[in-house]
Fold each of these.
Amino acid sequence: MRVLVTGGAGFIGSNLCRRLTAGDLAGIDEVVVLDDLSTGFVDNLDGVDVEIVEGSFLDPDALERAGRDVGAIVHLGARPSVPRSIADPVASHLANASGTVAVLELARQQDAHVIVASSSSVYGATETLPKTEDLPTRPMSPYAASKLATESYTNAYAHSYGMDTLAFRFFNVFGPYQAAGHAYAAVVPAFVDAALAGRPLTIHGDGTQSRDFTYVDTITEVIADAIARRVGSLDPVNLAFGSRTDLLGLIGELEGVLGHPVELEHEPSRVGDVPHSQADGTALRALFPDVQPVELTEGLTATVEWMRSTTASA
Ligand code: NAD
């Protein structure tokens, strides 16, 4: 089978392509990446046996070229980040909402299994923890609203056309190939980058905000299994395991991995950031009973090693 990974040159996408081309997955013959390189990098796919189509899924020609004869589509391509969406909400809407409809249309034509990336940010201002999928959604940013559109369209296509679809709500994913050195960097790469460079780690707010951190290999393992078994769900599924670590705890873990303390600086909280996030993993475990999440310390150790290796080779 030919598998299309949109956003395959990005952080999660490039890790997924590595996993899908590792050679041990029966039934996956070819992987094609469609990426406009807006936040991804071709270098992330160095040494990975994939076909790369450089272009946007908002461009019908590029989508048609990349989408020829695909049996499964993993739609990871998006304009990520809450602050980026607050700076330019229309761009987030086009990439994340309109872009998803374009990809779903392709999947409908090809009768392809389709897996899409939604986000824990859809829970937004809902305070209940842990987050079960049936909680009300209350987006606090254009990004969160656009991800709600991503999963809503996906489930609507499943209902309307009988398609096999699966919308995952990712929580805070981290690991190798996650970009650090830009204004919209996620917290783990931003912290590891600063710590390795000897700079203070910037905490927005008091550091008690908590997240359900998920190592990227856990994500790619679940997606690979979902493709292999053509797993579908008419409702979105959290892809995280119910761990909850606050930023001060994360820093403690990082200090343990590095073997030395780090310096901190505090800045005001950011608009649109949710205070706490923790998944209920019951639905995930029902669909993927064999999956074993990688522990935070193990994932952080691998992330630090990877970032050290990129700094050394720069
Ligand atoms: P990323 O920025 O590294 O990857 C996104 C990729 O999509 C990039 O390679 C980018 O160039 C590509 N892209 C953007 N617009 C495109 C377009 N119009 N056409 C083709 N390609 C396009 O981000 P990531 O962290 O790997 O995120 C992957 C997916 O997971 C996204 O949908 C994101 O919203 C979702 N997600 C990620 C997290 C996380 O913690 N990293 C959490 C929740 C949801």
Note: The chain is about 40% helix and 20% strand.
Amino acid sequence: MSADTPPATPTDVGEILVTSAQLQERVTELGAAITAEYEGQAPLLVGVLKGAFMFMSDLARAIDLPVEFDFMAVSSYGSATRSSGVVRIVKDLDLDLSGRHVILVEDIVDSGLTLSYLRKNLLARNPASLEVCALLVRETADLAALDLRHVGFTISGEFVLGYGLDVAERYRNLPYIAVYTGAVED
Ligand code: IMP
Ligand code: MG
């Protein structure tokens, strides 16, 4: 650890909302549902970096189909704990989406602004189909408008971390989802 690296702050990690066992059970169910829906096809999983990496990795192992992978990285302008809705593509896809059955894999849908942007952007590339599989969605999100095909868990307003989700790049490696109890900058 370098001298200017602040020590980890254990007080940032509050109540565990979704345990590792609950995550694995739900991801297995989602994988089985996707396997049934896309029978005879080779869907393309598009993961949104970085938050979706752990979910996508477990989800892919729960899908019994010849899936292919691609990744996109987006950055939304805003503070560490609030997205502004202005989205910039930091890393674009490598593969051509035309004629593909695309499943967009997201970590969390909060306001839905990031997702709306991504949906428009991906639909413009003429996929055969585009569905969204989000691990978490806020109960305040407009589910009908967002048209999410699969959702892992619905959570309330608290900022959460773990299982891919970060606070200023930390805590992505926690195997569970917990409430962030540190200071919220804005
Ligand atoms: P939206 O555009 O408001 O839906 O924000 C979506 C993005 O904000 C997610 O992909 C996350 O990167 C980030 N985000 C929103 N809520 C949380 C949270 O509770 N913990 C960590 N990241 C979050
Ligand atoms: Mg983030």
Note: The longest strand covers residues 68-79.
